[in-house]
Amino acid sequence: MAEDLVLDTAIRDWVLIPLSVVMVLIGILRYFVSKLMRSSPTPDAKMVKEGQVIIRARSLKFGANFIPPRSFRTRRSYFSNEENGLLHVPKGEGSNPQAQMFSDPNMAMDMMKKNLSMIIPQTLTFAFVNFFFSGFVAAKIPFPLTQRFRSMLQNGIDLSTVDVSYVSSRSWYFLNLFGLRGLFSLILGDENAIDDTQRMMQMGGFGFDASKSLSAEKDGLDILQHEWALPRFEQRAESVLRKLVK
Amino acid sequence: MVTKTEETQLNELENQVENGGGGVWEYLCLVRKLKVRRSEIVLKHGLSILNDPGKRSALGPDEWTLYEQVAIAAMDCQSLAVAQNCIKVLQKKFPESKRVGKQEALLLEAKGMWEEAEKAYTSLLEDNPLDQVIHKRKVAMAKSQGKPSLAIEHLNKYLEVFMADHDAWRELAEIYVSLQMYKQAAFCYEELILTQPTLPLYHLAYADVLYTIGGLENLVAARKYYAATIDLTGGKSTRALLGICLCGSAIAQLSKGRNKEDKDMAAPELQSLAATALEKEYKQKAPAKLNLLTSALRSLKIS
Question: How is this protein annotated for GO cellular component (chain B) (predicted)?
Answer without folding.
Answer: EMC complex
